[in-house]
Amino acid sequence: xxxxxxxxxxxxxxxxxxxxxxxxxxxxxxxxxxxxxxxxxxxxxxxxxxxxxxxxxxxxxxxxxxxxxxxxxxxxxxxxxxxxxxxxxxxxxxxxxxxxxxxxxxxxxxxxxxxxxxxxxxxxxxxxxxxxxxxxxxxxxxxxxxxxxxxxxxxxxxxxxxxxxxxxxxxxxxxxxxxxxxxxxxxxxxxxxxxxx
Length: 197
Ligand SMILES: [Zn+2]
What we know:
This protein is of the alpha/beta class.
């Protein structure tokens, strides 16, 4: 009967809107930490759909205080059991040094030692000279990815049974890979061909 179908749709709509109130986790019980870069299509990279995950994005896809805050909430209170970190090749966070950025801000008349890093929490401040450290630029995306997984793993705010994995998105060929596993380095080698001449 049509009435039953409509009732079901209304119930599904209510479940969607009131997910947090009803304690319904996201579909995959997944939290994703990814770089904000527009060349990284998170849903496409993971083969997931809207509703499947909580997605947190920042410059670099790095474990910052706000990333920990969000990861803590989703794993401790919203039923999330898995975390995936996605960093990517050609990331802007590898294009400069912290000193470059600090100098760039100073050239614009901004003193990094005198700004509030969180306008809503004025007491949250950095020690003098630590602004560059806070920006968190990196040189090697594979190492950065493994580092983010380690930082999450070691956080006492994230339950020990949460599965945490890191991947690299290759913007040059729109593919995901594991850190330190470049497929291009594996094919066409003597070892892969059986060690022949
Ligand atoms: Zn990036």
